[in-house]
User: What shape does this take?
Amino acid sequence: MTNTPMLRRDSSHGVVGGVCAGLARTWQVDPLLVRAGFLVAVVISWGLGLVLYGVLWAALPADASRRTPTRNLSPTHVVAIIALLVFAISVALPEGRYAAVGLSILALLAAGWYLTRHRRRPASTTRPAEQVSQWKQPPGSPQVGLAQNPLLAVTRRAPLGGWVPIVSAVGASWLALAIVSVAAGSVRPVAYPSIALAIMAIALLASARPRGVARPRPRGLVLAGLATSLVTLSLILPSATPASQAVTQGPISASEEVIELGIGRNTVDLSQRTLTSDHEVTITGDAGSLTLLLPTDVNVEVTYQVDAGRVRTPQQSDAQGMDLQLSESYASDPAKPTLRVLVALGMGTVEVRR
Amino acid sequence: MTGRPDGMSVTVGLLFGAIAAVGLWSAVGTVDWALVGVGLPVALVAIGVLGINISRHQ
Assistant: This one.
């Protein structure tokens, strides 16, 4: 019989709270595997995995301790747990509409946490050795050791300290956008990475001034900017691609029809269809926008399946989010044939006019 | 202390700024892609010339 270690947090090998490392030790697997699995779970569960982590962190005792962390929570921990809960709930709500609120609160909290932690424990000096050795004690002053050297007493911000104003600005601007989005519902998703990228660009330009005038560039800023650029471009480029038209009209012979959309803007015009019997049209596409024009003189049943995006129809004024599955019907005359349309789009916008 | 600015930060910062400007434009309105098609290459050349100029004197 194998002796399985008791489930505890492994603080000494942990990255955040030692939960994954503790699970890995209990299951006797590589901690990297558990962390990777946890990250995948967080993404799949839209952030709810973070709540599970928080619960495990609070419930599991650390090594050499029978007390769980919840016994001696500091106010900072309580605020952090509440922020994580707000974040998880905000992303779990239908359509992820309030996700930006949770994200911005997290960003602001991270900046505040770093600021308070940094002030409490300033980094040790990094003055050059030659400057330190050149320091002379004032004549007649009592002999003091190296620790009293005033050059050594000067502290310098850690490289990550440069991120604090950037993260704070991004968090504040996202919070403002989220409030506008909730209040007015008119903020497009591309606004979030764009404004973050603009702040990073300003930070880069501010750090470009000659040495001694500007603070050094925060570590990883260029890399983070590149990633944000990719996200921004992926959101704006689909609307830049040339429109591709897929216009069909007139009498048709087959009872079923499949229209495959190209990436970009597409228009499918079914408004001029003249049906003699029931007819089915399947419209599929990976990414882009679709403007669907429906006929008015026949009965129409439409089903929309959109993985991520928005559906705007005369009946569904504006549905947006993930895994959208909607159906609607437009009746004209029960004696007339019915046109059934299935729209299956991976990512993008469907706009229906009738 | 005086000196030349950091060429890397200037060029990358301006490039990010250009992308962010187009992104914000598409967020608040409809992007005039014909204008972007002309303006972006010109901006890229200008940023490149500026970066080379800064790097030459460092």
